Amino acid sequence: MRGKTTDEIKPFIVMDVLERALALERTGRSIVHLEIGEPDFATPPAIVDACIEALKNGETHYTDSRGIPGLRAAIASYYERRYGVKITEDRVLVTMGVSPALLLVLSILIEENGDEILLGNPYYPCYPNFIRYMHGTPRFIFSEAADGFQLKPAAVEGAITPKTHAIMINSPSNPTGTLMPRDDLEAICNLGVAVISDEIYHGLVYNETEHTALEFTENAFVLNGFSKLFAMTGWRLGYIIAPKRAVRRLHILLQNIFISPNAFVQHAGIAALTKKHPEIEEMRQKYDARRRYLLRELPKLGLRYALEPRGAFYFFVDTSHIDNDSLRLAFDILEKADVALTPGIDFGDRGEGHLRISYANSLVNITEGVRRLGVYLTERGAL
Question: DSSP string covering 160-195, please?
Answer without folding.
Answer: --TTEEEEEEESS-TTT-----HHHHHHHHTSSS-E
